[in-house]
Design brief:
heterodimer, A: about 325 residues, 5-stranded parallel sheet, 8 helices, about 25% strand, B: alpha/beta, about 35% helix, binds flavin-adenine dinucleotide, binds adenosine monophosphate
Chain lengths: ~325, ~260
C-alpha cells in the first residue's frame, strides 16, 4: 500500500474550522500530482451535519475516533491517538493547522514518530526522496526552504493563502476504536474570549500601542468591528497591563499576516515590525510625523488617533452605505 | 530544580544579512551581536522567581558552540546557579531543533529535574518545536504558552493562552512548560550579578560525551536550500487634507482604489 496524506481536522463538535477545509483542499490538490490517497482524521464526537459537509472536500477516507476524551484538545492523548492513526493510515505526510494546539501536537508527534517536522509552513512539495518545505524565519523577515529526508513529514500549515474547494466524490467514513488513556493534564477552566477573533488568522488587524494611553481600546474595537477584524497591541500596551499578553504582536508575541494592518499610536520598533512585515498593506496613525512606523507603512495619517479613529469609523460607515447603493 | 534552556540568537537585523551569505552556519560568524533568545530570558526569569518562592536550584542549559558560553554566562549573571553547555559543530544553524530535543533528553535523563522551562520559540529559527518535542521524549506532561503558574507541592497549575482565550490546567511535576511573552519582565543584569557569575560553574560537555554518533547525527536535521530575506519595502503615501475628515476620506479612497481593500 502506498503512503497516504493525512489531514488532522479541527472542530468544535458542530462545525469544522475554515482551515480544515483549506488543508483538505490543498491535500487533495497535492494528491492529484503524487497519487497519494487522502485521509482526514476527526478526533472526538462530531455532529452528522458537520461530517456530511466534510465528505464533500475530497478526502478518500474520513477516520473517526468517537471518544469523548478527544472532544477537546489535550496534548498527551492527542499525541497518543494521532500517532497511531498516522501508522494505521500509513501516512507519509501529515498536515495540521498552524494553531497553537496543532503546533505543539506537530512537535510531539514528530518526536514520537521520529518524523521530520516544520511549523509555520507556507508550502510543501514531495520530492523523489524527502520533502521540500517553505517557511518563515525571523518573524516574517526571511523565507526559507528546507529539505527533509525523513520517511514521514509532519507540517503545520499557514492556511490563510489557501482556498477551500469542494471536490467530487464523497469520502468513506471509517470508525476506528483506539483505547484512549486519561490525560495527565487536568483542565480546570476554559475562558473562551468570543469577542476576540484569532489574531494570527485575521484578515484585518487593528492594533494599539502606548499612544492609546490606557486600557480603553473601545475605539479600536469599534473600528475592528467595522472592518471585520481583530484587535492587537504593542508590547508597551501589554506591559502596561492594558491588554492581555495573548494580544501582543511582534517578535515576542503573535506574528500576523493580514490583508490590512492598521497601527494606531505605535512607534514602529523593530521588534514590533518583525510581527507585521507579512501584512499585505500596512497603514499607520501617529501624531508624530517622524515616527519610524511610517517608513514601513504603505499609507499613513498624521494626527491624534482619538480624532482620526472615530472619524475613520464614521467615514467607513458612510463609505459602506455608498457601496451598497 | 528548574532547568531553563538558553538558546543564543543573534540580533535580528544583522543576522538575516549574514545568514543570507552563508546559510546554515550562523553561530560561526564573528561580527554578529549575540543575545539570549528573548523567550528564554522569560523562561529563566520565571525559573528564578520559582526558586525565590520555593527554593531549589536553577541550571541554565544550552546547546551551542564556543561563542554560546557568553549566553550561559549571562544567564548566570541574571541569577542561575549553574550552567551546562553542550557543544558541537552541528549546533546553531537553524536546523538543529529536533537534534536539540534529542540531546536534551539524553542529558536530562542522567540528571533528573522537577521542572523544565523553555521559551515557546526561538526568534531566529522559530521552529516552535523544542519544548513539546522534549516533553514527549522524556514522557512528561507539557503545558505550552504559559502566562501564569503556581506550584503547590507536587502539582503545578498554569494559565495558558490560546487563540480563542485562556485555559487553566493542572499537572503533576516533573513537567515542562513553554513560556509565552508577557509571563514576566526579565530582570536586568547588574554589575554584582556579573561578578558573581564569574565564580559560578559552567559545565562544558562535548556532544560525544553524552551521545553516540548513531543516535545523534545530521540525519536528524533538515538541509537549508534557500534563504531569502523578505524586503518589506513599502512606499509611503500620506493621507492629506485640511481636516481629519478629509485625511480619512483620502485614506479610504487610497485603500479602496489603489489596493483593492475595502
Ligand atoms: C527582546 C525584546 C522583544 C520585544 N518584543 C516586542 C514585541 O513582540 N512586540 C512589540 O510591540 N514590542 C516588542 N518589544 C518592544 C519594542 O522595542 C518597543 O518598545 C515597543 O514596540 C514600543 O511600543 P509602542 O510603539 O506602543 O510605544 P512607543 O514606542 O512609546 O510609541 C508610542 C507611539 O504613539 C504615538 N502617539 C502617542 N499618542 C498619540 C496619539 N494621541 N495619537 C497618535 N499617536 C500617538 C507616539 O508618537 C509614538 O510614536 C520588544 C523589545 C525587546 C527588547
Ligand atoms: N540550541 C539551543 N540551546 C538551548 N535551548 C534551545 C536551543 N534551541 C532551542 N532551545 C529552546 O527551545 C525553545 C524553542 O526553540 P525553537 O523550537 O527553536 O523555536 C527555545 O526558546 C529554547 O528554550
Amino acid at each position: 500500500m502506498s503512503s497516504s496524506i493525512l489531514v488532522i481536522t479541527e472542530h468544535n463538535q458542530h462545525r469544522f474550522s475554515k482551515s480544515t477545509f483549506r488543508l483538505l483542499s490543498m491535500a487533495r490538490e497535492m494528491s492529484g500530482k503524487t497519487k497519494h490517497s487522502v485521509s482526514a482524521f476527526v478526533p472526538g464526537r462530531i455532529s452528522s451535519k458537520a461530517l456530511k459537509k466534510l465528505t464533500a472536500y475530497g478526502a478518500d477516507r474520513i477516520v473517526l475516533v468517537e471518544n469523548g476524551k478527544l472532544d477537546s484538545f489535550s496534548l498527551d492523548i492527542y499525541t497518543h491517538v494521532v500517532s497511531s492513526i498516522v501508522l494505521k493510515e500509513n501516512a507519509g505526510i501529515v498536515f495540521l493547522n498552524n494553531s497553537t494546539s496543532h503546533q505543539e501536537l506537530s512537535a510531539a508527534l514528530a518526536a514520537r514518530l521520529r518524523a521530520g517536522c516544520a511549523i509555520n509552513c507556507t508550502d510543501v512539495q514531495k520530492l523523489k526522496k524527502g520533502f521540500l518545505v517553505s517557511k518563515y524565519m525571523y518573524g516574517v523577515k526571511a523565507k526559507t526552504k528546507f529539505k527533509l529526508s525523513n520517511k514521514i513529514l509532519i507540517a503545520a500549515m499557514h492556511t490563510l493563502e489557501f482556498k477551500s474547494i469542494p471536490s467530487k466524490g464523497a469520502g468513506r467514513i471509517v470508525k476506528q476504536i483506539i483505547p484512549v488513556p486519561d490525560s495527565q493534564v487536568n483542565i480546570l477552566e476554559r475562558n473562551i474570549d468570543k469577542s476576540h477573533s484569532p489574531l494570527s488568522r485575521a484578515k484585518v488587524v487593528i492594533s494599539g500601542g502606548r499612544g492609546i494611553g490606557g486600557p480603553d481600546f473601545s475605539i479600536l474595537e469599534q473600528l475592528a468591528k467595522e472592518l471585520n477584524g481583530a484587535v492587537g497591541a504593542s508590547r508597551s500596551a501589554v506591559d502596561a497591563g492594558w491588554r492581555p499578553a495573548s494580544h501582543q504582536i511582534g517578535q515576542t508575541g503573535t506574528i500576523v499576516s493580514p490583508d490590512l494592518y492598521i497601527a494606531c499610536g505605535i512607534s514602529g520598533a523593530n521588534q514590533h515590525l518583525a510581527g507585521i512585515a507579512g501584512s499585505k498593506i500596512v497603514a499607520a496613525v501617529n501624531k508624530d510625523a517622524d515616527a519610524p512606523i511610517f517608513s514601513k507603512s504603505d499609507y499613513g495619517i498624521q494626527g491624534d488617533l482619538f480624532e482620526i479613529v472615530p472619524c475613520l469609523i464614521k467615514e467607513l460607515k458612510a463609505f459602506k452605505s455608498r457601496q451598497n447603493h | 530544580m528548574p532547568a531553563p534552556p538558553v538558546r543564543q540568537v543573534s540580533t535580528v537585523e544583522m543576522n538575516a544579512d549574514s545568514i543570507e551569505k552563508a546559510f546554515g552556519s550562523a553561530l560561526s560568524s564573528k561580527k554578529d551581536q549575540w543575545i539570549i533568545n528573548p523567550h528564554d530570558e522569560i523562561a529563566l526569569e520565571e525559573a528564578l522567581q520559582i526558586r525565590e518562592t520555593h527554593g531549589g536550584t536553577v541550571t541554565a542549559l544550552s546547546f551551542g558552540k564556543p561563542v554560546t558560553e557568553a549566553a550561559v554566562r549571562r544567564a548566570l549573571a541574571m541569577g542561575a546557579d549553574s550552567g551546562v553547555l553542550i557543544m558541537d559543530e552541528l549546533a546553531g544553524n537553524y536546523r538543529d531543533f529536533m537534534l536539540v530535543a534529542h540531546i536534551y533528553r539524553l542529558y536530562l535523563e542522567t540528571v533528573g529535574v522537577d521542572l523544565i522551562l523553555t521559551g515557546s520559540k526561538s526568534v531566529d529559527g522559530q521552529s516552535f518545536l523544542v519544548g513539546p518535542a522534549l516533553a514527549e521524549l522524556l514522557s512528561i506532561p507539557c503545558i505550552s504558552m504559559v502566562v501564569n503558574q503556581e506550584i503547590n507541592g507536587k502539582m503545578i497549575r498554569c494559565r495558558k493562552s490560546t487563540e480563542s482565550g485562556e485555559i487553566i490546567m493542572e499537572t503533576p511535576l516533573p513537567a515542562l512548560l513553554t513560556t509565552a511573552g508577557g509571563l514576566n519582565t526579565p530582570r536586568y543584569v547588574t554589575i554584582p550579578g556579573i561578578k558573581r557569575a564569574d565564580k559560578k560553574p559552567i559545565d562544558v560537555l562535548n556532544l560525544s560525551e553524552i551521545a553516540s554518533n548513531e543516535t545523534i547525527s545530521d540525519r536528524l536535521m533538515p538541509e537549508i536550500v534557500s534563504f531569502r530575506r523578505q524586503r518589506n519595502k513599502r512606499s509611503l503615501k500620506m493621507a492629506v487634507g485640511k481636516s481629519s475628515e478629509e485625511k480619512v476620506r483620502h485614506l479610504l479612497d487610497m485603500l479602496h482604489e489603489k489596493s483593492g481593500i475595502l
